[in-house]
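Table 4 source record.
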Amino acid sequence: MELLKDIFDSLRGNLRERVTNPFLATFFTSLVIYNWKILYAFIYITHYKDVHKEINTELPKEIHKDVFQEITSLEDFINKNVTWFVPLLWGLAAPFLLNLSKWLSRILHNLTMDRIYPSIFKYIAGNENVSAETHNSLKNSLKSKVALLDLKDKELESSNKIVNELNSKIKLLEDEKLKITNSRIEEIPLLHLQNEIQNPQGASCKPIEMKDHIIKSIEFDFNIPEFYFRVGIKFGSKNFELFSSKGILSENSYLVHLSKNNNASEIILTQYQFTERIKDDIIIGDKVTYKKINLRVIFLPTQKVEFWVNGKLEIEINGVHRIHREKLYIVAWSDGNEFKLDLENVRIELAE
């Protein structure tokens, strides 16, 4: 959908540029006007061989007589009547005529300000001998008011542009809201994870059944273990592979996880986009501060993903498109070491 929207916006922009181009607009308009007979012939002749039998006799006879009196074939008629040169001249002249009209408009404006308005002021004042000082004062006052009006016009134009942009964003949000109105909740009271030696890094990966839905939010709790661990979520497009040559990292997917190393107490939050780390690790606390962790991930309609740890917003990821919310795993690993980890109160909200 994003690709189609980009293509549509590009086509609309190109069309607007050509329609507002004085050369192209004038050329094609005059081309239609000067070649109206050819268009007329195309509309009312359906076969080339016997053109006079194909004429719609219900139309005014004088029009048919004027257009078709010398036609022996449509090809000959086009060759004899098509006109390119005059429309081309009009197209070439259009930019110059446009600039000329702007120049004449400026001259008329200056003439009005310098000659006509002062005469009006003299007439209103009823005194032919209005002083130069009074004249200049009235002239400057009028110029100030005109400049103020021009400024307000520009401000109004800028405001309208901002309003249109906001309306477009509101429409986008409303469309996304409609898509996620019908949601479904999956709840797992207890999810047991432990190392699986057949997987790279001994990872335990629990898929979430999507059924043509997308992720809206996921949340779970767990007690911080003493051992080395990694636990989090992996999400992406439908076709992403769970593992690659880089282990748990793979293309077309995001991985965000909490971790604690051996002989360390710091709890670290790490984020990957595809196979690359997005930002530096974030230390969110230690085992003394947090004996239990609540991880909540919210996928917003604005292509933003928020990661909350124990009620505090820790990180945001922007630019996560809808297609990267179609597949979800809960993952845990200990890089080949044995581990057992229980996730409690797992709650997944999916949207259509």
